[in-house]
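C-alpha coordinates as discussed.
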Protein backbone atom coordinates (compact mmCIF):
# COMPACT_ATOMS: atom_id res chain seq x y z
CA UNK A 1 0.00 0.00 0.00
CA UNK A 2 1.31 3.43 -1.01
CA UNK A 3 0.57 6.77 0.60
CA UNK A 4 -1.11 9.52 -1.41
CA UNK A 5 -0.73 13.16 -0.43
CA UNK A 6 -1.33 16.43 -2.22
CA UNK A 7 2.25 16.38 -3.45
CA UNK A 8 1.79 13.07 -5.27
CA UNK A 9 -1.52 14.29 -6.71
CA UNK A 10 0.17 17.40 -8.15
CA UNK A 11 2.81 15.25 -9.83
CA UNK A 12 0.10 13.00 -11.24
CA UNK A 13 -1.84 15.94 -12.70
CA UNK A 14 1.31 17.34 -14.33
CA UNK A 15 2.08 14.14 -16.24
CA UNK A 16 -1.51 13.53 -17.40
CA UNK A 17 -2.39 15.02 -20.80
CA UNK A 18 -4.85 17.90 -20.49
CA UNK A 19 -7.33 16.29 -22.87
CA UNK A 20 -7.36 12.93 -21.06
CA UNK A 21 -10.68 12.40 -19.16
CA UNK A 22 -9.48 11.05 -15.82
CA UNK A 23 -12.88 11.66 -14.24
CA UNK A 24 -14.60 9.46 -16.82
CA UNK A 25 -12.04 6.68 -17.24
CA UNK A 26 -13.20 3.74 -15.15
CA UNK A 27 -10.82 1.22 -13.60
CA UNK A 28 -12.13 -2.33 -13.09
CA UNK A 29 -10.28 -4.91 -11.00
CA UNK A 30 -12.70 -7.80 -11.47
CA UNK A 31 -16.14 -8.47 -12.89
CA UNK A 32 -17.89 -8.57 -9.50
CA UNK A 33 -17.02 -5.04 -8.35
CA UNK A 34 -18.03 -1.68 -9.74
CA UNK A 35 -15.36 0.40 -11.39
CA UNK A 36 -13.84 3.58 -9.97
CA UNK A 37 -12.65 6.56 -11.91
CA UNK A 38 -8.99 7.55 -11.90
CA UNK A 39 -9.83 10.77 -10.04
CA UNK A 40 -11.61 8.82 -7.30
CA UNK A 41 -8.61 6.55 -6.84
CA UNK A 42 -6.09 9.41 -6.83
CA UNK A 43 -8.09 11.40 -4.27
CA UNK A 44 -7.87 8.60 -1.72
CA UNK A 45 -5.34 8.51 1.12
CA UNK A 46 -3.67 5.38 -0.22
CA UNK A 47 -3.27 3.39 -3.41
CA UNK A 48 -2.41 -0.27 -3.92
CA UNK A 49 0.06 -1.75 -6.39
CA UNK A 50 -2.76 -3.28 -8.43
CA UNK A 51 -4.44 0.13 -8.71
CA UNK A 52 -1.17 1.72 -9.85
CA UNK A 53 -0.79 -0.97 -12.50
CA UNK A 54 -4.40 -0.55 -13.67
CA UNK A 55 -4.01 3.24 -13.98
CA UNK A 56 -0.78 2.77 -15.93
CA UNK A 57 -2.53 0.51 -18.43
CA UNK A 58 -5.40 2.97 -18.84
CA UNK A 59 -3.18 6.00 -19.55
CA UNK A 60 -1.66 6.82 -22.95
CA UNK A 61 1.63 5.10 -23.68
CA UNK A 62 3.61 8.36 -23.89
CA UNK A 63 2.66 9.41 -20.33
CA UNK A 64 5.66 9.86 -18.03
CA UNK A 65 4.06 7.68 -15.42
CA UNK A 66 7.40 6.77 -13.83
CA UNK A 67 7.57 10.24 -12.24
CA UNK A 68 4.40 9.54 -10.31
CA UNK A 69 5.53 6.04 -9.32
CA UNK A 70 8.89 7.40 -8.14
CA UNK A 71 7.18 9.89 -5.82
CA UNK A 72 5.13 7.24 -4.01
CA UNK A 73 6.12 6.32 -0.46
CA UNK A 74 5.03 3.27 1.55
CA UNK A 75 2.10 3.87 3.83
CA UNK A 76 3.02 3.37 7.49
CA UNK A 77 0.45 1.74 9.73
CA UNK A 78 0.49 2.32 13.50
CA UNK A 79 2.15 -0.47 15.46
CA UNK A 80 -0.11 -2.27 17.95
CA UNK A 81 0.64 -1.29 21.53
CA UNK A 82 2.20 -4.06 23.59
CA UNK A 83 0.57 -5.24 26.78
CA UNK A 84 2.38 -5.15 30.12
CA UNK A 85 2.99 -8.91 29.95
CA UNK A 86 4.48 -8.62 26.46
CA UNK A 87 6.70 -5.71 27.56
CA UNK A 88 7.89 -7.69 30.59
CA UNK A 89 8.59 -10.78 28.45
CA UNK A 90 10.49 -8.65 25.93
CA UNK A 91 12.52 -7.04 28.74
CA UNK A 92 13.36 -10.44 30.27
CA UNK A 93 14.35 -11.77 26.84
CA UNK A 94 16.74 -8.84 26.28
CA UNK A 95 18.27 -9.27 29.75
CA UNK A 96 18.74 -12.99 29.12
CA UNK A 97 20.40 -12.35 25.75
CA UNK A 98 22.70 -9.76 27.34
CA UNK A 99 23.61 -12.15 30.16
CA UNK A 100 24.41 -14.94 27.71
CA UNK A 101 26.54 -12.58 25.63
CA UNK A 102 28.50 -11.55 28.72
CA UNK A 103 29.06 -15.19 29.66
CA UNK A 104 30.21 -15.96 26.12
CA UNK A 105 32.60 -12.99 26.23
CA UNK A 106 34.01 -14.17 29.57
CA UNK A 107 34.55 -17.67 28.18
CA UNK A 108 36.37 -16.28 25.15
CA UNK A 109 38.49 -14.04 27.40
CA UNK A 110 39.45 -16.98 29.62
CA UNK A 111 40.42 -19.02 26.57
CA UNK A 112 42.62 -16.18 25.27
CA UNK A 113 44.56 -15.65 28.52
CA UNK A 114 44.81 -19.34 29.40
CA UNK A 115 48.24 -19.56 27.79
CA UNK A 116 49.45 -16.62 29.91
CA UNK A 117 47.82 -17.29 33.27
CA UNK A 118 49.19 -20.58 34.60
CA UNK A 119 46.36 -20.94 37.09
CA UNK A 120 43.94 -21.13 34.16
CA UNK A 121 46.03 -23.39 31.93
CA UNK A 122 46.86 -25.88 34.72
CA UNK A 123 43.74 -27.65 35.92
CA UNK A 124 45.48 -28.70 39.17
CA UNK A 125 46.33 -25.11 40.08
CA UNK A 126 42.96 -23.89 38.89
CA UNK A 127 41.09 -26.18 41.33
CA UNK A 128 43.67 -25.95 44.13
CA UNK A 129 41.72 -23.43 46.19
CA UNK A 130 38.49 -25.38 45.85
CA UNK A 131 40.21 -28.64 46.83
CA UNK A 132 41.83 -27.00 49.86
CA UNK A 133 38.46 -25.68 51.01
CA UNK A 134 36.97 -29.15 50.58
CA UNK A 135 39.79 -30.77 52.59
CA UNK A 136 39.45 -28.13 55.30
CA UNK A 137 35.71 -28.73 55.52
CA UNK A 138 36.23 -32.48 55.79
CA UNK A 139 38.87 -32.06 58.49
CA UNK A 140 36.51 -29.84 60.48
CA UNK A 141 33.78 -32.48 60.17
CA UNK A 142 36.15 -35.24 61.37
CA UNK A 143 37.44 -33.21 64.33
CA UNK A 144 33.89 -32.22 65.25
CA UNK A 145 32.82 -35.87 65.14
CA UNK A 146 35.74 -36.95 67.35
CA UNK A 147 34.99 -34.21 69.88
CA UNK A 148 31.27 -34.98 70.06
CA UNK A 149 31.81 -38.75 70.27
CA UNK A 150 34.52 -38.34 72.92
CA UNK A 151 32.34 -35.93 74.88
CA UNK A 152 29.42 -38.35 74.73
CA UNK A 153 31.61 -41.18 76.02
CA UNK A 154 32.94 -38.96 78.83
CA UNK A 155 29.40 -37.99 79.75
CA UNK A 156 28.33 -41.63 79.97
CA UNK A 157 31.49 -42.74 81.81
CA UNK A 158 31.97 -39.90 84.32
CA UNK A 159 28.88 -37.71 84.10
CA UNK A 160 26.43 -40.30 85.41
CA UNK A 161 28.72 -41.11 88.33
CA UNK A 162 28.96 -37.44 89.30
CA UNK A 163 25.24 -36.81 88.82
CA UNK A 164 24.02 -40.00 90.53
CA UNK A 165 26.77 -41.26 92.87
CA UNK A 166 24.27 -43.30 94.87
CA UNK A 167 23.84 -45.73 91.94
CA UNK A 168 27.26 -47.21 92.68
CA UNK A 169 28.05 -48.22 89.07
CA UNK A 170 31.25 -50.14 88.53
CA UNK A 171 33.77 -49.49 85.74
CA UNK A 172 32.26 -52.05 83.34
CA UNK A 173 28.78 -50.54 83.63
CA UNK A 174 30.12 -47.01 83.23
CA UNK A 175 32.16 -48.16 80.22
CA UNK A 176 29.07 -49.72 78.64
CA UNK A 177 27.01 -46.59 79.27
CA UNK A 178 29.73 -44.40 77.75
CA UNK A 179 29.96 -46.64 74.65
CA UNK A 180 26.18 -46.52 74.18
CA UNK A 181 26.14 -42.71 74.33
CA UNK A 182 29.16 -42.44 72.02
CA UNK A 183 27.64 -44.89 69.53
CA UNK A 184 24.36 -42.98 69.35
CA UNK A 185 26.14 -39.66 68.78
CA UNK A 186 28.52 -41.25 66.24
CA UNK A 187 25.69 -42.57 64.05
CA UNK A 188 23.86 -39.25 64.34
CA UNK A 189 26.97 -37.39 63.14
CA UNK A 190 27.52 -39.97 60.42
CA UNK A 191 23.97 -39.42 59.15
CA UNK A 192 24.48 -35.66 58.84
CA UNK A 193 27.90 -36.13 57.18
CA UNK A 194 26.46 -38.49 54.56
CA UNK A 195 23.51 -36.16 54.00
CA UNK A 196 25.86 -33.19 53.51
CA UNK A 197 27.97 -35.16 51.00
CA UNK A 198 24.83 -36.15 49.09
CA UNK A 199 23.67 -32.53 48.93
CA UNK A 200 27.11 -31.47 47.68
CA UNK A 201 26.99 -34.07 44.90
CA UNK A 202 23.53 -32.92 43.83
CA UNK A 203 24.70 -29.31 43.83
CA UNK A 204 27.76 -30.18 41.73
CA UNK A 205 25.57 -32.02 39.22
CA UNK A 206 23.20 -29.06 39.00
CA UNK A 207 26.12 -26.68 38.45
CA UNK A 208 27.51 -28.93 35.72
CA UNK A 209 24.12 -29.12 33.99
CA UNK A 210 23.68 -25.36 34.24
CA UNK A 211 27.16 -24.72 32.84
CA UNK A 212 26.54 -27.14 29.97
CA UNK A 213 23.19 -25.49 29.21
CA UNK A 214 24.76 -22.01 29.25
CA UNK A 215 27.54 -23.11 26.88
CA UNK A 216 25.12 -24.78 24.45
CA UNK A 217 22.77 -21.78 24.55
CA UNK A 218 25.65 -19.36 23.98
CA UNK A 219 26.89 -21.39 21.01
CA UNK A 220 23.43 -21.54 19.43
CA UNK A 221 22.92 -17.82 20.04
CA UNK A 222 26.28 -17.03 18.48
CA UNK A 223 25.37 -19.09 15.40
CA UNK A 224 22.07 -17.23 15.06
CA UNK A 225 23.83 -13.86 15.36
CA UNK A 226 26.26 -14.88 12.63
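Sequence:
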Amino acid sequence: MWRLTEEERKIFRKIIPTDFPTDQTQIYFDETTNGSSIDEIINRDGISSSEVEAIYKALPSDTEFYKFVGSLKPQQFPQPELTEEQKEAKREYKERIERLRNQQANMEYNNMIRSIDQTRSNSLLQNFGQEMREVSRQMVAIINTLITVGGSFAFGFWGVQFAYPHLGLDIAERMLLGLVCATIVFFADLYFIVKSMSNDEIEEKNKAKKKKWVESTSISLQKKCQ
